[in-house]
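cache lookup: miss for this entity combination. No prior model stored, computing from scratch. Input as submitted by user K.M.:
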Amino acid sequence: MSTVTAAAVREHRVTVRSLLQHKRRGRAFSMLTAYDFPFARIFDQAGIDVLLVGDSLGNTVQGRETTLPVTLDEVVYHARCVSRAAARALVVGDMPFGSYQVSVEEAVRSAVRLVKEGGVHAVKLEGGRVVRETIERIVAAEIPVMGHVGLTPQAVHRMGGYRVQGRGQDGRERVLADALAVEAAGAFAVVLEGVPADLAREVTARLAIPTIGIGAGVHCDGQVLVMHDLLGLSDWTPSFARPYANLGALASQAARQFADEVAHRKFPGEEHSFR
Ligand code: KIV
């Protein structure tokens, strides 16, 4: 990269500070998951502010039932692909289950790997009050942390399924306390997943750091979607997501046409053949 280009990238790069400014100015920002180079480049060039290398790759890329088996090595690999493509977006690497729960030291080591080997600018981890010290120590290692409270998929077995959190007075207080703890620990933003919209509005008003909603209504400071839901690449779309395209149907049509043309010896044509 030339010096001029590197300077231009620095100038326009979305940072943890610019996201905070967006909140202060009331400008909603966008985050999408990305797991590979081509889609990361498309989303980056489309102006998506944050690319999340989510552990949702366990579901979307690996076809697993939960995110629990995803390993740190796997997230590092996908993070490397995404960070290579992102010229403008802030790249956040998700800390998978098992990479931060055992000890604070291991959590810091895992976060360092995501930055050093995966090339991410920040990490995300799930939980509220229980991960307060973990967030503090990762932040103390100069790595920005995004929190994630409400419906936390790594806690699927404790929650008894992927259930909306924060309903009822106790539930509301738990989610609010978790979000406040994440902010107090030094996180620069927090994902609010699967919580009632009015609770997300209250949390967003109470926090100085930006909230990023998924299944949390319109009042969050930013919104995140899993790219497979955005693009219609899954068999099933959750009720809180809107498919903005149907790439699944397009890919299927292309594959069928290819198979048909091969069967009828219509492909390759003269123009695709060497002399
Ligand atoms: O892993 C992921 O994709 C996430 C988002 C749904 C926020 O955590």
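stored under new cache key. The chain has a mean pLDDT of 96.
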